[in-house]
């Protein structure tokens, strides 16, 4: 059995269309949308609406962790515009391209920058959307938990710790735990380029010790200090920033 796994697609529909080649199934761990590319400030919904100079400014503020200033600057840019309508129109355009690129079968969950209410409109037959749910793939039980936890970044799909913990509890025992965010382990949460810790989940870390899955697969941290490590009986793997690499991580058994 061969499964290809991607995360943090961020608009890379071209490589996504090839990601399932040679695999029995594709697993996607979210963040399909590209709001703003921190490596190339000309790409994404934000610069399309407000220009590259505005994108440069917002990235500089966020990188400096000046989140209040970043939010105030963003509010000024949006003043007079219908933010919800403009964002949804741009997201719909990206989702139409990205969901069309998914092979069959695909098993997908949400990232913290995704908009879950729109997914049912684009998930055709063979594209299975799971959150707090399981699927059997090649005889192994895969559990999926989507979204991220609350942060100062205030991205579209952040949820409270209790809701996130309930989704983990709903899975039961699994062979492969699939999430967007990592467990709360410093080496797995630190981004070496952004030079900050992304938020991981203490509940996920607890689940690794109690459920003891074979693998825990996740993304979210684009340039992790450590890409892979063992926690107890579980091999934890950051499957990579697919937007930049265009290459899926491969799981075979």
Automatic annotation (TrEMBL):
Ranges where the Calcineurin-like phosphoesterase domain occurs: 1-224
Domain of life assignment: Bacteria
Residues spanning the signal sequence: none
Annotated InterPro entries: Calcineurin-like_PHP, Metallo-depent_PP-like, UPF0046_metallophosphoest
SUPFAM superfamilies: Metallo-dependent phosphatases
Full protein name: Metallophosphoesterase
